[in-house]
Amino acid sequence: MLSHLKILTVTHKRTNLNEIGNFVIKSNNSEELKSRLEKLKQQFELDELLYVSTCNRVMYMFTTGRDIDSTFTSHFFQSVNSDLSLSTIEKIDEIVFSLEGEEAMEHLLDVAASIDSLVIGERQILGQMREAYELSRQWGLSGDLIRIIFQQAVQAAKSVYANTRIGDKPVSIVSLAIQKLLKSNLPKEARILLIGAGQTNALAAKFLAKHNYHNVVVFNRSLDKAQKIAKNLGGKALPLQDLSSYKDGFDAMIVCTGATEAIIQEDLYRSLLAGETDEKVVIDLAIPNNVAKDVVETFQINYIEIEGLRQLAKENLAFREQEIVKAKKLLVQFQQDMPSLIQQRKLELAMRQVPEAIKAVKSKALNEVFQKEVETLDDSTRELLERMLTYMEKKCIGIPMKAARELTLQQ
Ligand SMILES: NC(=O)c1ccc[n+]([C@@H]2O[C@H](COP(=O)([O-])OP(=O)(O)OC[C@H]3O[C@@H](n4cnc5c(N)ncnc54)[C@H](OP(=O)(O)O)[C@@H]3O)[C@@H](O)[C@H]2O)c1
């Protein structure tokens, strides 16, 4: 029954991303996670349980006939995290979304279709949900009802991705930067300098590899981080201080460090040019910018900097948001179909006994009720009788199945 579907979730919509960590199951490995989830399931008398944790949400989806109120929610999360502060428990209803039945289903569809995401249209969530579902299925935490509900959510999400433009335009700064780089028609063997080896440039490196740019030199203060990125790219790593003595020239550079002042000053840039005079692509993703203004003004540069990209990302996000209306319309149909899908499954399960029951009736008729009369029949008549009963048995099995199917369709 859909009314048994419950969701307790903490998302970016009501709390900051750090606080979400307080509602996540902390475990050192998958065995520990499995056993913590099993304990939760048992302790709170849940029939089925699916646990989804991403960087901007944690979701406990379960089925139970129990009522979910503030007391339940508080106990539940105290069990998830025994260190939960008293002040958090006091405002638990403000932090945790508690959803049931239709409302829970609607939320699940929104999440899968990425319209509840921090970055609307980010398909990654569907992959994360699939992984989470696969684990709970393998671990025996979820069963038939969650399977049907989850499959419907996947179908709905696929329909949204296929029939709207919700994920069309990139909204990540790095992916927009790489798009601009690609537009500059840089050849695949172009010499690229990657300055900084933090999260942002690590992501930029992934995009470079994806687009087959491997002639990359990564510079960073801590060499180990540069080496890690260079290894994945098939490039080279050097300490940041070697930048001033680097004489191999370049075609493009991506600069992104946490330095609070520009690190690419006029002298350094001139020395990096190593006498080359053609236009270079310079991508500066740092805030504040890592490339000095003088450099941009003095040299021939196709300069791509973060402010422009941020503006583009904003516009693209606004475009995606407009698609939510279309997505919602599609999701309504998937939501409306849900009760009859559940009903159909219940009937299928009930009907499983029908063939065995009819077989037993046939056997009883032949071997008990009409046994004496059957014994008086000659071989060919007995054979005909058995064939007729087998025919009837098969036909009888089909009748209730068909009726049940029609009944479900009418609902
Ligand atoms: N994260 C994002 O989503 C995002 C998006 C766009 C732009 N940004 C901007 O990108 C910059 C870096 O962000 P991130 O997320 O990549 O940071 P991160 O993961 O913390 O990495 C910081 C990087 O900057 C280097 N660094 C820090 N201070 C430095 C200094 N004084 N001189 C030279 N190198 C220094 C670090 O070197 P070590 O490894 O040696 O510490 C490391 O390579 C910031 O300006 C940020 O505002 C971030």
Structure keywords:
single chain; 411 residues; alpha/beta; Beta Polymerase, domain 2; 3 domains; six-stranded parallel beta sheet; four-stranded antiparallel beta sheet; 18 helices; 56% helix; binds NADP nicotinamide-adenine-dinucleotide phosphate
Q: Explain this structure to me?
A:
By secondary structure, the chain is α/β, with parallel strands linked by helices. It folds into 3 domains: 2-163, Beta Polymerase, domain 2 (2-Layer Sandwich); 173-317, Rossmann fold (3-Layer(aba) Sandwich); 346-410. 56% of the residues lie in helices and 13% in strands. It contains 18 helices and 10 strands. The strands form 2 sheets. The protein has a 6-stranded parallel sheet with strand order 7-6-5-8-9-10. It has a 4-stranded antiparallel sheet with strand order 2-3-1-4. α13 (293-298) links the parallel β9 and β10 (301-305). The model has no long low-confidence stretch (mean pLDDT 93). Residues 173, 196-201, 220-222, 225, 240, 256-259, 263, 285-287, 306 line the site of NADP nicotinamide-adenine-dinucleotide phosphate.
